[in-house]
Amino acid sequence: MKVVDKIKSVTEQGQTAFSFEFFPPKTEDGVENLFERMDRLVSYGPTFCDITWGAGGSTADLTLEIASRMQNVICVETMMHLTCTNMPIEKIDHALETIRSNGIQNVLALRGDPPHGQDKFVQVEGGFACALDLVNHIRSKYGDYFGITVAGYPEAHPDVIEADGLATPESYQSDLAYLKKKVDAGADLIVTQLFYDTDIFLKFVNDCRQIGINCPIVPGIMPISNYKGFLRMAGFCKTKIPAELTAALEPIKDNDEAVKAYGIHFATEMCKKILAHGITSLHLYTLNVDKSAIGILMNLGLIDESKISRSLPWRRPANVFRTKEDVRPIFWANRPKSYISRTKGWNDFPHGRWGDSHSAAYSTLSDYQFARPKGRDKKLQQEWVVPLKSIEDVQERIGYQTPVSPM
């Protein structure tokens, strides 16, 4: 299902949609630990989760693997980031075909950061120069199958922010106009870069509406977990840090627990103000940790651990091809990854004893008229045309002979 449709469905019920972002870990153990963390966070019922692509496409294969497992094993609606960096069209199409075959319908289309060791983005031969080109390509080749999300920059794109930390009015307006082009080309959702000044975000939303951008705009919330990491991320994104935030963090900057606790409080207050202004969805950049995200959502009253429930003994499948699945063998939970893999091709290779009963091919070949030899049917009818009325009749039919007692 498209994320934009899920968000609309949640908000139409008067609820707030929330979602989580993750990135591919560097080690195999880290990947397995990430899935455990995802499973914990997904139990709270996010509208979707997304997985990043990696600078310069450095984690492309791992991102594809994680996205597939998120959608099919973790059972959460998954959005995969896709960038233009080091990606010729053939690789882009391979990635899109891979996630489509795994039932994923959502892509976050980005230009991407420069590869490691480079300061500026360089268009790869046979690739795209910007996110707009990528959006156009996805829509022209894949039609309406994918829900396409694009990035919004409340303070303008970092590339146009000056040394004083601000974009010129002309650069800001140009950035807005470019965002509208992406939406007009087929993007149906905007997720913003992190920010710490809610007034800047609210102004950005209003400015978007003024120029005719009417799709949902989801604020990206980055919890503060430690002081040095906070400064590094804010510096990389050229994000304005309000004076009151600096004043609050400076005295406790060497106390990680205090910084994290204040970060949860500050993000909670940001979200309260955002929600009070009519915004109905939140996107949390988890940095692959869960405590801050859970703390913020609990403070907002959006989750309650005592009310976590499932309509089935497993999460309802998020894969678009498995949404009607409502029965599994009793041993499925012993090896869920294996079960999902083994049953992936049910519709392609139907099996009469165990398969998808919703499939038009569900049956056994013995029921198929061309698979039943007519001569065999006629012979069976002749053999059983005379009814069996006694034990002797049965013995005669099966050729039974009474054993002879030894002398």
UniProtKB/TrEMBL annotation:
Keywords: FAD, Flavoprotein, NAD, Oxidoreductase. InterPro entries: FAD-linked_oxidoreductase-like, Fadh2_euk, Mehydrof_redctse-like, MTHF_reductase_bac, MTHFR_C. It catalyses: (6S)-5-methyl-5,6,7,8-tetrahydrofolate + NAD(+) = (6R)-5,10-methylene-5,6,7,8-tetrahydrofolate + NADH + H(+). Its EC number is 1.5.1.54. The keyword Oxidoreductase applies. Residues 310-396 form the MTHFR SAM-binding regulatory domain. One of its GO terms (biological process) is methionine biosynthetic process. GO terms for molecular function: methylenetetrahydrofolate reductase (NADH) activity. Belongs to the methylenetetrahydrofolate reductase family. GO terms for cellular component: cytosol. It comes from the Eukaryota. Coiled coil: none annotated. It comes from Arabidopsis thaliana. The probable reversibility of the MTHFR reaction in plants suggests that they can metabolize the methyl group of 5,10-methylenetetrahydrofolate to serine, sugars and starch. Homodimer. This is Methylenetetrahydrofolate reductase. The keyword NAD applies. It holds the Pfam family MTHFR_C. Its cofactor is FAD. Pathway: One-carbon metabolism; tetrahydrofolate interconversion.
